[in-house]
């Protein structure tokens, strides 16, 4: 039982990191998009 709990925590950690990196890349795309939009206004 302890073993399965440990593997569950490990896989949840991996999922959390993947989600975090996805959020990070989305934020970076959004920042790039915003800066391009600001450039196009002038």
Quick structural gist:
The protein has 42 residues and is an all-alpha fold. Helices cover 95% and strands 0% of the residues.
The residue-averaged pLDDT reads 86
Q: Order of SSEs, N→C?
A: H
In this structure, how is the largest beta sheet organized?
Answer: none
Q: Report Rg.
A: 18 Å
Provide a count of the helices. 1
Question: Percent of residues in helical segments?
Answer: over 70%
User: How much of the sequence is in beta strands?
Assistant: under 5%
Q: How far is the first residue's CA from the last residue's CA?
A: 62 Å
Structural class per helix/strand content?
Answer: mainly alpha
Shape category: rod-shaped
The residue ranges in which pLDDT falls below 50 over 5 or more consecutive positions are none
The counted number of beta strands is 0
Explain this structure to me?
By secondary structure, the protein is an all-alpha fold. The chain is built from 1 helix and no strands. It has one helix at residues 2-41. The termini are far apart.
Strand-helix topology:
Elements: H1 2-41
Quick tags:
42 residues, 1 helix, mainly alpha
């Amino acid at each position: 039982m302890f073993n399965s709990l440990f593997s569950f925590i490990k896989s949840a950690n991996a999922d959390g990191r993947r989600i975090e990196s996805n959020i990070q890349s989305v934020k970076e795309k959004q920042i790039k998009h915003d800066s391009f939009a600001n450039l196009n206004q002038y």
